[in-house]
TrEMBL record:
Pfam families: Cupin_1
Signal sequence residues: 1-23
Record's GO cellular component terms: apoplast
Listed GO MF terms: manganese ion binding
Highest taxon of the lineage: Eukaryota
Domain Cupin type-1: 61-209
Entry protein name: Germin-like protein
Keyword Metal-binding on entry: yes
Keyword presence, Transit peptide: no
Main location (coarse class): secreted
PANTHER family for this protein: GERMIN-LIKE PROTEIN SUBFAMILY 3 MEMBER 3
Localization per Swiss-Prot or TrEMBL: Secreted, Extracellular space, Apoplast
C-alpha cells in the first residue's frame, strides 16, 4: 500500500506544472561589471575588461544617505540599479532606498521587469498592490516587517506614521524599471492627449489640466 501511495504521489508531482519564476537571465561567468560607456548596444551592458575591474566595482554606498523628500509626493527613491552600481550587470538583482516624509507617498507604480520585496527600517507604512483581476491587497507594516509585490503589479507605500519612514526594497532584476502611474499619464513627453484622459477618467478638461499643472505642465 505504501508503495502505491508513493507511486501515486510521484505521478501527481510529475503532472504538476513546474513553477518557474525568473527575471533577468543567469550570468555565464563570475561577473560582468557593466561598461556603461561602451558604444555597442546590447541587451544589458557589455563587460568592463576583467583586468580593469577593482574591488570598488563590487561595493556601492549610494544608498547610505537619507534622501531629500521635499517634493510633491514627499518621497525620495534612490535606485541602486545597474546604472548606479555597474557591478550588478548580468547578476539579476538590485535594491532601492525609499525615504518618506510624514504623510509622504511612493505613488502607485509598477516595475515591468521585476518582482519586489521590501523591509521597513523606520516608521509605519500602508503598503498595497492591485492584481490584474483588480483585487487590492494591503497591510500597515512596522519596523522589521517585509512585503512582496508580484512582478508588474501596481503598488504603493504611504507613510502613515508620525515621523519619517525608511524602507529598502530588493528586485530580481538589475534594472526593474518603474512606470509611475500619475507621471506616466499626466507628465509624459509629449503629453497624452487630454481627450484620452477625460474619457479614461470620465472628467472634464479642467480636472485634467488641474492635475497636469501640479506636475509643472
Ligand atoms: C531638498 O530639496 C528642496 C527642493 O528641491 C530644496 O529646496 C532643498 O534645499 C533640499 N534640501 C537639502 C538639504 O538639500
Amino acid at each position: 500500500m505504501a508503495t502505491m501511495a508513493t507511486l501515486y504521489l510521484f505521478i501527481v508531482l510529475l503532472l504538476l506544472p513546474l513553477p518557474y519564476s525568473y527575471a533577468d537571465p543567469d550570468p555565464l561567468q563570475d561577473f560582468c561589471v557593466a561598461d556603461l560607456k561602451s558604444a555597442p548596444s546590447v541587451n544589458g551592458f557589455p563587460c568592463k575588461l576583467a583586468s580593469e575591474v577593482t574591488s570598488g566595482d563590487f561595493f556601492y554606498d549610494g544608498l547610505s544617505k537619507e534622501g531629500n523628500t521635499t517634493n510633491l509626493f514627499g518621497v525620495n527613491v534612490n535606485a541602486g540599479n545597474v546604472l548606479a552600481f555597474p557591478g550588478l550587470n548580468t547578476l539579476g538583482i538590485s535594491m532601492n532606498r525609499v525615504d518618506l516624509a510624514p504623510g509622504g507617498i511612493n505613488p502607485p507604480h509598477s516595475h515591468p521587469r521585476s518582482t519586489e520585496s521590501g523591509i521597513v527600517i523606520e516608521g509605519k507604512l500602508l503598503v498595497g498592490f492591485v492584481t490584474t483581476g483588480n483585487v487590492f491587497y494591503s497591510k500597515v507594516l512596522g519596523v522589521g516587517e517585509m512585503f512582496v509585490v508580484p512582478r508588474g503589479l501596481v503598488h504603493f507605500q504611504l507613510n502613515v506614521g508620525d515621523g519619517k519612514a525608511l524602507i529598502f526594497t530588493a528586485f530580481n532584476s538589475q534594472l526593474p524599471g518603474a512606470v509611475i502611474a500619475p507621471l506616466t499619464l499626466f507628465a509624459s513627453t509629449p503629453s497624452v492627449p487630454d481627450d484620452v484622459l477625460t474619457r479614461a477618467f470620465q472628467v472634464e478638461d479642467d480636472v485634467i489640466n488641474g492635475i497636469k499643472s501640479k506636475f509643472g505642465l
